[in-house]
Every structure is written in C-alpha cells, then in structure tokens.
Amino acid sequence: MIEPSFQITISSDPNYMQNDVYKLANYSGGGLLIDCYRKRGEKALRKKIIELKQLMYYNGDGISFREELFSSDSMNKAKNERKSGGRGSTRKICWKMQYRGLYGESLLHIMISCNSETHTLIAKKLLRKYPALVFDIFENEEYY
C-alpha cells in the first residue's frame, strides 16, 4: 500500500479531484476505472482502457523528447554536453503531461502505488494495451 503521508499530502490539495488522472484512479482506492471493473467486470474495463488512448501521446505509442542534462557541478555538465553533442538525452514518454497527477505521476504509477489486487490487475491490462507506459517516470523534480 502507499505511504500514508503521501496519500494525505495529495488528498489535502484542494484541486486533487479536479485532476483527470485522479478521477480515473486515486490514492484512496477509488476512481472510475476501479468502479467500472468492480461493478461491470473485465469487458467493460477493456472498453474504458481503449478510451484512455486520448490521454496518451500518439494513442499510446508515446513520443521521444530531449531531456536537459542536470548537474550541480559545472565541470560535469560541460563533460556531459560534450558527450551528447550539447543536445541532452532523449527518452520516451507515453502519458500526456497535462493529464498527470500533482507529482507528475501517470495512471500506471497510481495503480502500482495503490498495490491492491484490483489495482494490479488494471495495471497489467494497461501495460498489455499500452506497453509504452513502462517508459513513464514521475515528472516532478522531487522524484528524479
């Protein structure tokens, strides 16, 4: 299960439930996907998962983007820029940034963090349908 302090921090934010990702699944164990599965079963859940492609880049295939190289040491930064040609590193992301949670988490992160049998089942179904979700990381500086 998730750390209680993490759940309290997020759920105490006044905009918590206005965020689309928390409507789908939240740290309290609820959300549209969880309710859909519990009330209507796997077939209805599969349909809902297909609808999620609009919340991902290229319908779930993801995109590659260039990431700035961060370093507090200017010498290391200069070395990194020389190695990469000054362009930064490239990585893939799937879940659109504007649909991420307060800490930059995707729906998959929430499912894994909640760690219930239902959340794990939904996480597996998400990954089967959209394998590029595996490349997503928390996009908050505190979690790098």
From TrEMBL:
This is OSMotic avoidance abnormal family member-like protein. It comes from Dinothrombium tinctorium.
